[in-house]
Amino acid sequence: MxxxxxxxxxxxxxxSSTVAAMLVRRGExxxxxxxxxxxxxxxxxxxxxxxxxxxxxxDDVYDARRVAEQIGIPYYVVNFERQFEQRVIAPFVSEYLxxxxxxxxxxxxNFIKFDQFLEMADSVGARHIATGHYARIAWHAASGRYQxxxxxxxxxxxxxxxxxxxxxxxxxxxxxxxxxRKSDVRQLAREMDLTxxxxxxxxxxxxxxxxxxxxxxxxxxxxxxxxxxxxxxxxVTTDGRTLGEHDGVHHFTVGQRKGLGVATGEPLYVIxxxxxxxxxxxxxxxxxxxxxxxxxxxxxxxxxGLPAPARAAVKIRNKHAAASATLYPTAxxxxxEVHFDAPQRAVTPGQAAVFYDGSLVLGGGWIE
Amino acid sequence: MQHFYFDHNATTPVSAPALEAAAACMGQxxxxxxxxxxxxxxxxxRLEAARRQVASLAGCPPREIVFTSGGTEADNLALLxxxxxxxxxxxxxxxxxxxxxxxxxxxAQLEREGAAVTYVPVGADGIVDPEEIRxxxxxxxxxxxxxxxxxxxxxxxPIAEIAAIAREAGAYMHTDGVQALGKIPxxxxxxxxxxxxxxxxxxxxxxxxxxxxxRPGTRLGAITYGGHHExxxxxxxxxxxxxxxxxxxxxxxxxxxxEESARLAGLRxxxxxxxxxxxxxTGVNGHRAARTxxxxxxxxxxxxxxxxxxxxxxxxxxxxxxxxxxxxxVHPSHVLTAIGLTADRARASIRFSLGRSNxxxxxxxxxxxxxxxxxxxxxxxxxxx
Lengths: 368, 385
Prior knowledge:
The complex is a heterodimer. Chain A is α/β, with parallel strands linked by helices.
């Protein structure tokens, strides 16, 4: 590393703390940085006692600072609240209002962690950044590209959220945990006596307390002085019957079964939401099946592009078991048609479709 | 790596004599200053000796000094203690856009309690125009609170003129003097103050001790309850070690004032001139003459101040962007925006505040670190100004 320091993005959790400690152990010069992304106190009405979803809480900063002290590295909290609101929160809210189900983590990776944070790394003289992501990056000489692969620990793999990374970003990123199992990471953290070795993990979207998106959006729109748009509408069936009323399409996501507020004999699922007519269409599980999708704003990661139709395994949600499919190029290189071998349930606009060849991430795009 | 400290407006190291005074008190003079016995009397004597030392630096009789836990508590006591006790209602307060959060926060609380507050704007030089204060007067104005020296810019406010306006209008005059005491001469009687806040840790005493000057006859109610301490003005067992250290630091500050402020002004000007000469797209924020001798606030256009603070820290130089209290906040410094800086320029600004430990060699080394850091950061994001 030519003696240049490595900037580690420290969230205060066990993963990034272990990364920082491993690098120090390896003899690297390390600068610890915590990104302050969101002020939880901004919407106090959302943070009930015992609330989960705790992005950038004072406790996390405390933990990260404690680890930095333990391993003896310079440590700073850098404030990206402005950029986070602009590039992540605002698009998240407008996507939901447009009837899609966005993934803020990918936006955060694309525009904050591997963009703003890289700039901050530059300013402390760091050539590389390291994060606690579970994924692997390797240089592939034959194609002259950095390739992204799933983590060895597939249950922890985060490549679904990393499909937007460019070659320039991959070239400067280190994911030291990609080769490790989570249990080994914890074990190593314990061996190194890190105070966060047994800290709980967070699973939900960091800035949304208790996973209640609708309440978050209501609070955000109120804060922005945007009168909650007239969002009430009707719940209708695929064959056109009206079952009841709802108070906003942003309370619903495709595939959702619970909380529809209508009682019928058979289980009902959300099939589609329409922000224009404010209609929520519900139907049977089979109505959710789709033979394919169109991915837009496709980013190619491990390969340069899609010159001809190709076979791939396609993931349409983070927890989706990738489905076999054929990718078809379109006239627009940013758009790819995906034809599944077998129809897939709940293809959700706004989520990502990520294309894999085995463990290799070919690329991905947003579901139209 | 050696680290050098250029952030004395945030806090100062405790001087050796102040440290010794505090330690001696903790070990030996441990009585409760309110106790009748020998131990209590010894503590009371130490407390009153400290009060005389502080009063001497502030230019008032000792009995007019009330010890507090620091500048923030002194400001809270002054504002809440006066306004809550004012007979007239509705009650009106005049303050400025430049004040420390301790004053602004107290004003916000008074507004929640039903008082009206006028925030007088300031000019680009960071100095309040007394005529603006006069224009803001209302028949029900009970208190005017204007700081002596601004923590971020160092600019010195015309508080004597403003105090005269307050007197004429029958309103009380409070000044947050935390950043002025020990840096410029302060004589609360000559300035016409009714209330004047000061803090220990800005003048080489420890954190956790401060004081409020209260002119006799000022109707000041308590804001803490539970004892008759400090003439019923501040309940709570007296912090004798803190007061002893503050007294000791005050004495030293008074003795050194002329010589040390001339020395610091020389170093500050050396730093400032070198920056303006050697680094393009820089400028001084606020008035360059009417300010404390140790402070300069400079914008480095096109940079993020936060990144520069970190880059300098990694080279061993401690400075600050905005005030230390507001670092990490999303909004650019309210002081810098109040003097008309754009949000970008406010975020590109750095405060250098010098103190006793700084030398010519340190200043020259800081200039070299600045030249290198700014060049590096500007290479990453070229200036478009």
